[in-house]
Design a protein that fits this description.
With 233 residues, the protein is of the alpha/beta class. The protein is built from eight helices and eight strands. The N and C termini lie close together (10 Å).
Length: 233
């Protein structure tokens, strides 16, 4: 599985399909993150919160995410109703779920309610942590998740935000304390900072605008792939 995964923040169902078709033309891509923003936990709302009925219809019809034979789909749930939203996305074929620790009053209950229904054999679970939040918000639950995602931007829910270097010390400290836990970073990742991220302990990077806004997205992803290879993974 690629340690570099492109991310899409869909404005509509059509926008999602267009971006996924673009990714499908790049043979090296095997994993895609779909960002889901509810307009409450983070703003502005993305699809499907901008048109909830469309997602409900897809679930009721038994639709599946496009290019499912190609991609492992990871859903970044930036929403207050994450367990309910998770059900819909899993029914569409997603197999990785990233929950935000700050979105739940009871993180343990949030994780256990989903894992009780789907287990950990076919679904991977991660906890995301905002830039200003204490590491102690996720540390009690490390045995219940497969990775921790650090947000590399101050304001989540929007692509193209500037990378905040404060995350580097946070990742380094967490990696020193929990070297066995895979660390994923999302937000502000570029070719200029990716090497530094890997050096401080990051195992996976989620890349949005650096690929989607590139003049040649395939070439941009290839450059990240070359960087991945230089780290021997």
């Amino acid at each position: 599985m690629n340690i570099v995964a492109p991310a899409v923040l869909p404005s509509s169902r059509e926008d999602l399909a267009e971006k996924l078709t673009l990714f499908a033309r790049i043979p090296q891509i095997s994993r895609v993150q779909i960002d889901v923003v509810d307009g409450r936990f983070a703003t502005p709302p993305s699809w499907p919160y901008s048109a909830l009925q469309e997602l409900n219809v897809m679930v009721e019809r038994g639709d599946m995410l496009p290019h499912l034979e190609r991609f492992e789909y990871e859903i970044d749930l930036m929403c207050l109703d994450a367990p309910r939203a998770a059900d819909a996305w899993l029914s569409l074929g997603a197999s990785r779920l990233t929950f935000h620790a700050e979105s739940a009053v009871d993180v343990s209950q949030m994780l256990s309610s989903v894992q009780a229904r789907y287990g950990r054999e076919i679904v991977s679970y991660g906890l995301a942590l905002n830039l200003e939040s204490s590491l102690t918000l996720v540390e009690p639950y490390l045995g219940d998740v497969d990775y921790v995602q650090f947000m590399g931007i101050a304001r989540i829910g929007r692509q193209g935000q500037p990378f905040d270097r404060r995350v580097l010390d946070r990742v380094r400290a967490f990696h020193d304390r929990h070297p066995e836990v895979p660390i994923q970073i999302d937000g502000g990742v570029s070719l200029q900072n990716a090497s530094t991220l890997f050096a401080v302990g990051v195992s996976d990077v989620i890349v949005g605008s650096a690929i989607l806004r590139a003049q040649d997205p395939a070439a941009a992803f290839a450059a990240f792939g070359a960087l991945q290879n230089s780290f021997g993974v």
